[in-house]
Amino acid sequence: MTEYPHALLINTSPSLQRFNERLCAVLAQSVRLGCWQYEQTADEPLSLAAGVVLLHDYLKHCDRPLDLLAHGTSGWLALLYARRHPERVRSLTLLAVGAHAASDWHAHYYARLQLLPCPRQVVLRQMVKGLFGNCCPHGERELIALLERDLRTALSPHTLYEHQRLPPAPVAMPLLICGSRDDIIAAPNDLNDWQPWLKSGDVQWCCPGGRHFFHHVCPHLVARQIVSFWQAIGSLAAPVTVLPPVSRSLLTISDVIE
């Protein structure tokens, strides 16, 4: 019999998955954790709707609703799914996702590319500094390569010629919004725009630092907030076991932490 996870990390950016692994390692000490991953190919259309269908193909077979968590662009997909299939989602945790969830790092990159008369490598270098802060030259080159790969393989429908929008709206299940005070993508003001849509019991928390990938920089601090939220809503009844992630194509198992 298939053993489903207690909580599921949604990841639509395979090249950036490494920045989820520290948080996954800490959370896996408290819950049975899985990871659902989507990888965009050159032959597939940029469609979040397709991602929602594929995610539902997995979640509809689970024997209970799951706690979903996601970062950035992945949070955009998780939010769309939670609004469409609230019966399958026990709670939703969004990391670095403003109330206007479509404003991901891809949107910021294309906006800069349109405004600045300079090569795309220059814009990518600026994005690296904004997303990660100062880094050594070798680290900067590696991060630029990761961002270039993410532009090709992540499920973000933004392009140079078209920017998607997603207006703010509430969700039916308990909601945790986490961000960082120095994030340039989901800035504190963008996180505060969630306020009109929060219900009683929903939580908004801001990490003191770490920029856009604060959950990689401060995994224990972020995990403490998530586990506390799950405990508050009575969602931690599963035994402490690690489940590997689920492939979005084959729905098979592979390790979430290498």
Could you walk me through the main structural features you see in this protein, from its secondary elements to its overall organization?
- This protein is α/β, with parallel strands linked by helices and 258 residues long.
- The protein has two domains: 7-102 and 164-247, Rossmann fold (3-Layer(aba) Sandwich), CATH 3.40.50; 105-153, no CATH class.
- The chain is 37% helix and 14% strand.
- It contains nine helices and seven strands; from the N terminus they run βαβαβαβαααβαβααβ.
- It has helices at residues 21-27, 48-59, 73-84, 105-115, 120-132, 137-153, 188-192, 214-217, 219-232; strands at residues 7-11, 33-37, 66-71, 89-95, 175-180, 203-207, 246-247.
- Strands 6-5-4-3-1-2-7 form a seven-stranded parallel beta sheet, sandwiched between helices.
- Helix 7 (188-192) links the parallel strand 5 and strand 6 (203-207).
- Helix 2 (48-59) crosses helix 3, helix 4 packs across helix 5 (120-132) and helix 5 packs across helix 6 (137-153).
- The longest helix is centred in the middle third of the chain and has 17 residues, at 137-153.
Write the layout of secondary structure elements.
Elements: E1 7-11, H1 21-27, E2 33-37, H2 48-59, E3 66-71, H3 73-84, E4 89-95, H4 105-115, H5 120-132, H6 137-153, E5 175-180, H7 188-192, E6 203-207, H8 214-217, H9 219-232, E7 246-247
Parallel strand pairs: 1-2, 1-3, 2-7, 3-4, 4-5, 5-6
- CATH level-four homologous superfamily name of the largest domain: Alpha/Beta hydrolase fold, catalytic domain
Question: What is the number of helices?
Answer: 9
Describe the main β-sheet briefly.
7 strands, parallel
Note the overall shape.
Answer: globular
Over the alpha carbons, how many angstroms does the gyration radius reach? Answer: 17 Å
The percent range for strand residues is: 5-15%
Helix-residue proportion? 25-40%
CATH architecture of the largest domain: 3-Layer(aba) Sandwich
Number of domains: 2
How many β-strands, per DSSP? 7
What structural category characterises the helix and strand content?
Answer: alpha/beta
CATH topology of the largest domain: Rossmann fold
At the first level of CATH, what is the class of the largest domain? Alpha Beta
Mean pLDDT: 84
